[in-house]
Each structure stands twice: as C-alpha cells, then as structure tokens.
Amino acid sequence: MSRSFPAIAVLLALIPAASHASEARGKSAPPAAKGCVEVSGTALTGMAGGPAYSAAELRCGAKLSLVLQRQTGREGRLAVWSTVDQVTIAKPSPRHELLHPAYCSSSRFPRDFVFALGRMVEQPDGSHRSESVVKAWRVDIKRERLAAIPVDGLLCALDPAD
C-alpha cells in the first residue's frame, strides 16, 4: 500500500470535523502573516461554563502554525474569533504531520485536547497508529495557551472503522 495512505486516511477522516469547525468558526481572524493558508480547524468542545475555543492549522510556506482561538462575539450567525496563542512548527520530514485531538490522547493529560507532530503508520489490522512523534502540545484553557508536553505516554490512533 502507498506510504502516503496514512496521511490521506487521516485527512479524509478529518473532512467532516474540519468542515464542521469551519462552519462553527465562521469569521476567523486573518492569518498572522501573508502567504499563510488555513489547512484545517478543530472545534474544541466540552469546555462548559466558558467561552468557545477552536484551533486552526496554518501552512506558511514550509512551516506550520498551530493557532488557539477564543470566540469573542458574533456577527449575525457567524462567530468572531481572536487568536490567544500560536506556536510555529518546523516539520522534521515531509512525512510528519500535525495530528489532531480527535485521534490523540496523552496518559499524562487524559482530560486535555492534545496535538502532536508525527506520522500515522498503517498497522497489519488496517488501523493506523502514530510513530516518530517528535513534539506535542496540550490546550491549557485556564491559561489560554498551547503548552508543550512530553511525547512519552502519547498515542494517536485511527481504527479501520473510523
């Protein structure tokens, strides 16, 4: 099977989540730098009693940025978002990709949304598991920031049925 299949499978699996996030995001803040394109977005749900948050992945040339946004208001039916934190990510290889919280968890931070920089590799049973994870971040809502976390105890997985 093609070596790019894990990346394609993850992207196809994210299409419903990304389109939902785009609808939820409505009007977002413009990218921090010219030439940046929003690759994907994730609505961060389950934060009861507080403002809504989302995360966006921006591609700026060869670099990626992970942007944490807080909903600051509405314009009609569209949400208005403000950037509260951003990390710039240098990919160690073209096969590394940003892995989203829908597929990642950390045993050290089991209740937090976790992003990782790694590769998804197809397993013999047809599932995909993360390998070569080199960096990870958790969403620290209390401090409104993306906090770097250790990669040990982190797993990103995509079952064949997903």
How would you sum up this structure, described in words?
There is one protein chain. The chain is mainly beta and 162 residues long. The protein has one helix spanning 5-25, and strands spanning 36-44, 53-60, 63-75, 78-90, 97-99, 104-106, 114-122, 128-140, 145-149, 154-158. The strands form two sheets. Strands 5, 6, 7, 8, 9 and 10 form a six-stranded antiparallel beta sheet that branches. Strand 7 (114-122) and strand 8 (128-140) form a beta hairpin. It is globular and about 50 Å long. Mean pLDDT is 80; it is low at 1-31.
Task: Jot down its keywords.
6-stranded antiparallel beta sheet, about 50% strand, about 15% helix, 10 strands, mainly beta, 4-stranded antiparallel beta sheet
Rg from Cα: 15 Å
- Mean of the pLDDT scores? 80
Please count the helical segments.
1
State the low-pLDDT regions, or none.
1-31
Major sheet size, sense and barrel closure: 6 strands, antiparallel
Strand runs, count: 10
Summarize this entry quickly:
This protein has 162 residues and is mainly beta. It is built from one helix and ten strands. The chain has one helix at residues 5-25, and strands spanning 36-44, 53-60, 63-75, 78-90, 97-99, 104-106, 114-122, 128-140, 145-149, 154-158.
